[in-house]
Amino acid sequence: QVQAVESGGGLVQAGGSLRLSCAVTGGIFRFLTIGWHRQAPGKQRDLVAAITTGGRTNYADSVKGRFTISRDNGKKTVFLQMNSLKPEDTGVYYCHLQDSNTWGQGTQVTVSS
């Protein structure tokens, strides 16, 4: 059974940085397309960034130039480096394994102004 566990969230001031991690167990990691989604209070869950098995990436317009998604196949982990954080980046960040439609439990990110 494939599982995803997020970590790295927290409280940070605007302009600061955080690095989220998504550790995957089960499955064949290098074949997985993985995304980070964000759900702000009272809003729907939206895609923030995704990375394919070949390392191709795509980003929501709101985070381009500030966030970077990467993967370490040896560690079976996907990272989301978030720089120049804004209050509107606040929300619960979820890791999503596209192929099995598996979601992690989420990690809270709060950016104060």
Helix-strand layout with pairing:
Elements: E1 3-7, E2 10-13, E3 18-25, E4 34-39, E5 45-51, E6 57-59, E7 67-72, E8 77-82, E9 91-97, E10 102-103, E11 107-112
Parallel strand pairs: 2-11
Antiparallel strand pairs: 1-3, 3-8, 4-5, 4-9, 5-6, 7-8, 9-10, 9-11
How is this structure best described in words?
The protein has 113 residues and is mainly β. The protein is built from no helices and 11 strands. The strands form 2 sheets. Strands 2, 4, 5, 6, 9, 10 and 11 form a 7-stranded mixed beta sheet that branches. A 4-stranded antiparallel beta sheet has the order 1-3-8-7, with no helix packed on it. A hairpin with a 5-residue loop joins strand 5 and strand 6. It is globular and about 40 Å long. The model has no long low-confidence stretch (mean pLDDT 95).
Outline:
This protein is an all-beta fold and 113 residues long.
Write out key terms for the chains shown.
single chain, 113 residues, mainly beta, seven-stranded mixed beta sheet, four-stranded antiparallel beta sheet
If you average the pLDDT, what whole number results? 95
Unreliable stretches (pLDDT < 50, length at least 5) are: none
Terminal residue distance: 40 Å
What is the 3D form? globular
Note the beta-strand portion: over 45%
> How much helix, percentage-wise, in residues?
under 10%
**Helix and strand element order:** EEEEEEEEEEE
Backbone structural class: mainly beta
What's the helix count?
A: 0
- Largest beta-sheet characterization: 7 strands, mixed
How large is the radius of gyration? Answer: 13 Å
**Number of DSSP-assigned strands:** 11
